[in-house]
Design brief:
Blueprint: E1 3-5, E2 9-12, E3 28-36, H1 41-51, E4 64-78, E5 81-100, H2 106-141, E6 145-146, H3 154-182, H4 187-197
Parallel strand pairs: 1-4, 2-4, 3-5
Antiparallel strand pairs: 4-5, 5-6
Length: 199
């Protein structure tokens, strides 16, 4: 349940617009399944271990959430200052989840549906924290002004610094959530035990 964070692409698109945050954007959320096999809960979980997505030093995981974030942004000189007057995000969140490659026996199928629903609910929490991060970036940066910056160079350095702080907070939230969910007696551990010990 770890996340891979794609780099921000900071795109400056020059078009006149007032310095207000846009409320009309919506994140695109998509599910990318990967195939597993087995006719028992234990066999399905073993297949997850062999085929699950790789996520850094953690190795293979059951599922993960990634995102791609780009911005339409305008930097405008006002006197000797530089101001961000347009700042519209485009966010695509991808949830990678396991999916059996063949129909399951009814009892196993019921157990599997409970398991994967719980895993997906976990990943959706990560998705929500990503959306909250993007909203925080939007509010922070629209109208951001740096004095004595007629070439709009200093503002980019300042924006990058603030983006790093917000991103770090979001990542820490994800780590804290995973620590609780996957710790002893945690929700994910319980889901795994029910699947493996079930039919």
């Amino acid at each position: 349940m770890t996340k891979t964070f794609l780099s921000y692409l900071l795109a400056a698109v020059f078009a006149s617009a007032p310095a207000v945050a846009s409320a009309d954007w919506q994140a695109v959320e998509e599910v990318r399944p990967y195939s597993i096999s087995g006719t028992t809960g234990a066999a399905l979980y073993e297949s997850i271990g062999a085929r699950g997505p790789k996520a850094g030093p953690a190795g293979r995981v059951i599922a993960h959430t990634t995102f791609k974030l780009t911005w339409t942004r305008k930097y405008e000189t006002q006197g000797h200052a530089c101001v961000i007057t347009t700042n519209r995000p485009k966010l695509i969140i991808t949830y990678t989840l396991p999916k059996p490659s063949a129909a399951l026996p009814p009892a196993v199928g019921s157990s599997w549906e409970s398991f994967v629903a719980g895993v997906q609910a976990h990943e959706r929490v990560h998705g929500e924290t990503i959306k909250e991060m993007v909203k925080e970036i939007e509010v922070m940066s629209i109208g951001l002004t740096v004095a004595d910056d007629p070439d709009c160079k200093k503002i980019r350095v300042e924006l990058t610094r603030r983006l790093g702080e917000i991103s770090d907070r979001q990542r820490q939230r994800g780590r804290d959530f995973d620590k609780i969910e996957m710790g002893d007696g945690g929700n994910i551990q319980q889901l795994i035990l029910k699947l493996v010990n079930g039919p």
